[in-house]
Automatic annotation (TrEMBL):
This is Histidine phosphatase family protein. GO terms for molecular function: catalytic activity. CDD domains: HP_PGM_like. It comes from Ramlibacter pinisoli. Substrate binds at residue 79. InterPro entries: His_Pase_superF_clade-1, His_PPase_superfam, PG/BPGM_mutase_AS, PGM-Related. Pfam families: His_Phos_1. PANTHER family: BROAD-RANGE ACID PHOSPHATASE DET1.
Amino acid sequence: MTPNWPSKIWIVRHGQSAGNVARDAAEAAGLVVIDIADRDIDVPLSDLGREQAVALGHWFGSLAPGDQPEVVITSPYVRARQTTRLLMEAAGLDPRRVRLRIDERLREKEFGILDRLTVRGIRERHPELAAQRSHVGKFYFRPPGGESWCDVVLRLRSVVEMVSREHDGQRVLVVAHQVIVHCMRYLLECLEEHEVLALDRQGDVPNCGVTSYRLDPQARAMAVDLVNFVAPLRQAGTPITREPDAMAAPKP
């Protein structure tokens, strides 16, 4: 008997955000703190991020009706919700027939005391935490007031269980954040710590990049279909960005 699974899962990182742009500027200038006034949850898309979301939406709209998303689940963060809205509008996904869910478990990883700090800022203001992170590793390191990747995985386990239970046989689109993409891959592909961190070291997840899975009935599991797919942006002539999130700490 095949376990309950959606027939298709797409996982999309939000479009480029104002936080991505601010972080790049702060790092380039050698600053300690990222200059952005909004709470992380309130950081909007940049103009380019909006363009990326529309380009990806046109690609989803080009799929046959029987291949388009039936359920869309998004992080509550503004940049993810804006990506979702623009994508759905461009795709022509009617909210009366496509179920939209907002789920706080898909929120960005919480950075705690390291929030808004650049790489230099972390090393200068919290050298002991920089050393601890280097020793423990990104997967298990939890900054004070923040989360480790393990903490994110823990909350995502219930998301995967909910999706498999409530959306059996459906096509599900998830819109969230870079760490969420990696941790969902960790769960769906049954990865280990060193494997998911190797994926992270390969580079940042592209803004509006698509990683997808299709149900393999014989394996009774979800099989990888696409990874960091950005052809829709390239075809639309939209610049592709692979920027770390505004509050992200450096890679090991």
